[in-house]
Amino acid sequence: MHLNRKAVALIFVAGLGAGLAASARSNQAELRRDVAGAAYGSEGGQRGGGTGSAPGQECPPGTTEVRPGNCQAPGEAPPSILDYRPRSTLVTAEHPVPKAKFPAVDVHGHPGALTTPDQINRMVSIMDSLNLKVMLVAENVSGDRLTRTLGAINASPHKDRFRVLAGVSFSGVGPGWGAKAAQQLEADLKAGAIGVGEVPKSFGLRTTKPDGSRLQVDDPELDPLWAAFARLDVPAFIHTAEPQEFFQPLDYKNERWLELALFPDRRVNQPGQVTFEQLMTERNHLFRKHPKTRFVAAHFGWHANDLARLGKMLDEFPNVTVEAGAILYDLGRQPRAAREFFVKYQDRIMFGKDSFQPDEYPLYWRVFETADEYFDYYRDYHATWKMYGMALPDEVLKKVYYKNALRVFKGMPTAGWPQ
Ligand SMILES: [Zn+2]
Questions:
Q1: Whether residue 257 is found in the same domain as residue 330
Q2: C-alpha of residue 391 to centroid of ligand 1, in Å
Q3: Structural domain for 136, as ranges
């Protein structure tokens, strides 16, 4: 657990400072003894000496390594990860980016209901303030709900600020399901949707078939639907799995400990539950068996923490592009590797935000556009670490912000984009 360890270390350093000041008043031999490490800050012996740790072993809980092989508990009760909020003393240039440098498409929009003029006007004024030119409404809705949203948008003066994706319902998958789903897809596209999504994470994680078994991502009953995407030439925007750590035990090694403790329903770590690797295998099998179907893997396919793996996936599946929603914390902690990745795969990445929180978009712009260093992510429970800017070249920014989305989703508004 990052913060705890940092906290312990810092409190220890403060203690060491006090210890050294006291030692300066004592004789040199004592000072040497203090610094040599047997008993740091042991005035009055209250803290006791450090305990040893075997080479290559971690210090026991509640202690930190103060010198090689010597573990020490702080003399003050350490704060919890919730309460430890150190002020950074780093003085460095800051370049907040309230508006994207180029007009952006959010391909992963969850704006909530957009069925009244008020809701639409409110969204548009927020989008203007961020330089979001188009939002793809990715609420996975079909039939009546879809046509109501499309109707309201098309009746408004802002019809080119939104495009809408249709939805798939995976209930009752069995013989004949695929053909019916393909028919519904066709009807939804006729009504004005320009693709499907976000196919929700429950598909693969929790959705079951009528016999109670888990519906696998690559279930053959779904094949007619995926084939229809190819025939109709629209992409399937699909969310598979969750961040890798959600599948791991909730212990103090889990870098998403806080999130999983706050939101227990995000855990997928019980015996018998599907594993991360199983879902990746099924997803890749789906991509492989439908090479003519274009897929958009949401959230970088949950490989933003392993860009080499994502690169391999993109190399293997030319029919796949990725979307960058809700993985900014992984890009911002490896800005050089992420920049290299974005440059190399500049035709395969689209901006998307996921959860609609207007205040959070500017952090995306800042990570993508600036070379700023050591700034906060917007949610502590996602990332206990700091962000660094990737300073993407303009040509890459344009592709990520809008050019790739205009190519992948046919039927996007075409006017008014920079060259
Ligand atoms: Zn998602």
A1: yes
A2: 26
A3: 104-408
